[in-house]
Amino acid sequence: MKNNYMSTYTQILYQLVFSTWNREETLVESGQEPLYKYISGILKNKNCHLYQVNGIEDHIHIVTHIHPSIAVATLIKDIKLACTSWNKETGHFKNFHGWQDGYGAFTYSIKDKDRLIGYVKNQKNHHKVKSFKEEYLQLLIEHGIQFEEKFLL
């Protein structure tokens, strides 16, 4: 008897980027590591593989493989909602007013994994010389994404 089903296999490396409300610098350093651990748990519960998460006071980057049954928009919405609730419970970020609408989701070849992980690990140093807006514009341009600058704040 022939097996008439096929398993699903994917290898799509994503870099997800999203910002705090009005890019306010509310993600104080003392709460960042617990936040990243919480995000790690969210991704694990959704059968996603986290490679790296990091950021600075006004935004975060997540390098992950997303399970094929999950839509990117749904995953990011779930992360934002869960992290907002988590912060209300823990109080790590006293002046946090939520997340900005929208996000960036960029795909990469698995060959770029180590470089991308290194880039995200190095966010604090990277942003000593480049603003979030400059970084985000560069990502949009590199990935050939059309945008209206008026929506980038």
Please tell me about this protein's structure:
There is one protein chain. With 153 residues, the protein is α+β, with helices and mostly antiparallel strands. The chain is built from five helices and four strands. Strands 2-3-1-4 form a four-stranded antiparallel β-sheet, sandwiched between helices. A hairpin with a 2-residue loop joins strand 2 and strand 3. It is globular. The mean pLDDT is 93.
Note the main attributes of this structure.
4-stranded antiparallel beta sheet; single chain; 153 residues; alpha+beta
How many whole angstroms does the radius of gyration measure?
A: 16 Å
Low-confidence stretches: none
How much helicity do the residues have? Answer: 25-40%
Strand adjacency order, main sheet:
2-3-1-4
Order of helices and strands: EHEEHEHHH
Number of strands: 4
Write the layout of secondary structure elements.
Layout: E1 13-19, H1 29-45, E2 49-56, E3 59-65, H2 72-90, E4 104-108, H3 113-121, H4 123-126, H5 132-142
Antiparallel strand pairs: 1-3, 1-4, 2-3
Helix pairs in contact: 1-2
